[in-house]
């Protein structure tokens, strides 16, 4: 065999091996940036069954984690308290276990919120941030949020805050884990996702305000905020029709975000999306009462997911045993499906 033929065979072998390296198990693309696959490679997300990843959000994990997060050990997670410190350490450790990096300025999981943000120099707390970088549009960021705090202890009674907002907090962990599984399968989101657990909601939306005033990722690059605050219970209006969730703000700044939300629901959970409180003139003022508002004030389109109030709201009886876990799971899956659609759309939601 002459030298020319040897070189041709070697070149052909290299090309074959290289092409095989661009595919993972079951013919799926390899992990972003691995096996020669560019992290900015364009993938056909229409071939992905979103529910394959939504279904990784399990009843068992939601229940197990919520029972711990809303246990007496956390002492009601009052902002700045030892119980709240335990809570943020737990969240950080969960993200580390699932392999989702910190979203802080230097890859940290904590954004320190100083006393001046609360008007109390002696008080210090933390927002918790985890982050998955986008494959195609890494500078555009979808923020999914929930508040990590509650109201602490009163008269030696622990206010566990299982629904408010243990439910949103643990749902956010599970949603992050579902996206991480997609990353592992080579289908990381086209846009970046910040999983943001904010502190100080119960004392005036302080953690989200601090983040909005000191964003790790520019607000103009923040394409939307999906905020989860109380999704584990049923209110009095839906006792006979519990397969619902209230959506607030979805069409206030962006009709396109609203349309994406409706389409994601139709193709996934097909729940009753109730817009009863979706108005700036709502006498309950729910639009102004959770952390999405600090994004909306900065012209970031928002959706607030909410089950309404109930008899245990802000009482020591808001405990994990009263959560409607199957409904809670369905709502978490819906939010994941909506986040998937927004993060992987061809264009970011346009403002009105």
TrEMBL record:
It comes from Nonlabens dokdonensis (strain DSM 17205 / KCTC 12402 / DSW-6). GO terms for molecular function: aminopeptidase activity; metalloexopeptidase activity. Gene3D superfamilies: Zn peptidases. Residues 127-337 form the Peptidase M28 domain. Coiled coil: none annotated. PROSITE patterns: EF_HAND_1, PROKAR_LIPOPROTEIN. SUPFAM superfamilies: Zn-dependent exopeptidases. GO terms for biological process: proteolysis. Signal peptide: none annotated. Pfam families: Peptidase_M28. CDD domains: M28_like_PA. This is Aminopeptidase M28 family. Keywords: Aminopeptidase, Hydrolase, Protease.
